[in-house]
Write a structure and sequence with these properties.
Strand content: 15-25%
Order of helices and strands: EHHEEHEEHEEHE
Largest sheet: 2 strands, antiparallel
Mean pLDDT: 92
Shape: globular
Distance between the termini: 8 Å
CATH architecture of the largest domain: 2-Layer Sandwich
CATH topology of the largest domain: Alpha-Beta Plaits
Helix content: 10-25%
Low-confidence stretches: none
Number of domains: 2
């Protein structure tokens, strides 16, 4: 079963980090970006990595056979409708998923609980906030079969 996923056109990435800000804001539960983010540490679910010559976005690939789900000792990670999700109430912050994810897609939030991209399905943004807010259209949300 194929599904829409986030893909990055690395050659178009400006390394502006706006995707990180839009992601953190979309998942903050607040309606004012300045109040949600200004002067606070960011906890986005997408990360820009790289150097002057190449930059790329690190985000969950929603693997067919996810190691993170298989290795989660608390049963906090699960697959639903082809998407890997986190039950934050079950997460014990052991970081096993961080160690096994080949893409570096998981990171702890401000409380040490794991978070990852869930394609903005739970924050009612419609399409992922990183896609919507990318000024250079370097991040796309599409089904590539």
């Amino acid at each position: 079963m194929s599904m829409k996923r986030i893909y990055v056109k690395e050659e178009w990435c400006l390394s502006c980090h706006l995707c990180e800000y839009n992601c953190a804001f979309a998942n903050s539960g607040m309606t004012d970006m300045a109040l949600a983010l200004k002067g606070k540490p960011l906890y986005p679910r997408i990360h820009i990595e790289g150097n002057e010559s190449v930059t790329y976005a690190v985000s969950c690939r929603h693997c067919e056979d996810p190691l993170c789900v298989r290795c989660c000792i608390a049963g906090a990670l699960f697959k639903e409708d082809g998407m890997i999700r986190v039950n934050q109430d079950k997460c014990v912050g052991c970081l096993t998923c961080v160690l096994v994810c080949p893409y570096g897609a998981l990171a702890p939030n401000e409380n040490g609980v794991m978070q990852k991209c869930e394609l903005c399905m739970t924050n009612s943004a419609g399409e992922p906030a990183c896609v919507k807010g990318c000024p250079n259209r370097a991040i796309v949300y599409e089904d590539r079969g």
